[in-house]
Amino acid sequence: MARNGYNEGCLAAHALDLVGDRWAILVLRELMLGPKRFGAIKAGLPGIATNVLTQRLDDLAAAALLERRTLPPPANVAVYALTPAGQDARLIIDALCLWGVRQPGHDPRKFISPTALMLSMQVMYHAPADAPALTAAFTMGGEIFATRADAEGFHVQPAPDDTAALRLAGPANAMAAVIYGPLPLADSLSTGGVRFDGDPAMGQALIDRFALRR
Questions:
Q1: Is the peptide bond before 171 cis (omega within 30 degrees of 0)?
Q2: Which of 30, 33, 40, 60 has the fewest CB atoms within 10 Å of its CB?
């Protein structure tokens, strides 16, 4: 319906004309932390058909929410990147997260992409004003994130960080269980789904700053 248009002057309807098609807002989600190749976007959206992803990328490009770029040498590969208007859709994603966490029926066992987990952690982060800064590197499959958790928020960059005080590696769903689960860090790690390197007390202090606040 969204591609055909709602034919309404309502601003919400106009927004849905742009991003209301199925998968559209999730395609934007996968690009929120930086440009990606087609295959990387598809990996973050395993339920989407290849032809549907192609169509959504075309639609979002036509709406000036993303653009196709070629990375400079030596990469020389095509990637998709958000425009400033596309980046502004982060407000929509954050609002959906905050609204969705309060609704019953959420099943954390279902697939979550590494990017989706990082974005949710930014939304669900809370730290006191005197919280010391903590640095952590998260590795989930082929995606690596350098993060800094301080009194201002949880900051994420899709890049390696060899200087991070804490290092966590494992599948995104196992990582989500460690971050949001009710068990202490040591007990969560005992299942073997996530590898942790660093000071355990510091690691516990980090995950204590995240909660699915309903």
A1: no
A2: 40
In the chain, where the domains are located: 11-89, 114-207
Report helix, strand or coil for 82: strand
Assign domain 11-89 to a CATH class: mainly alpha
As given in the structure block, the two tokens for residue 189 are 């790690």
Residues forming beta bridges with residue 149, ordered by sequence position: 134, 154
- Note the pTM of the prediction, 2 decimals: 0.94
For 22, left (φ over 0), alpha (ψ -120 to 50), or beta? beta
Please write the tens of the pLDDT for every residue from 81-127.
999 999 999 999 999 999 999 999 999 899 999 999 999 999 999 99
Q: What is the pLDDT of residues 35-72, one digit of tens each?
A: 999 999 999 999 999 999 999 999 999 999 999 999 88
**9 exposed, middle or buried (CB, 10 Å; 0-12, 13-18, 19+)?**
exposed
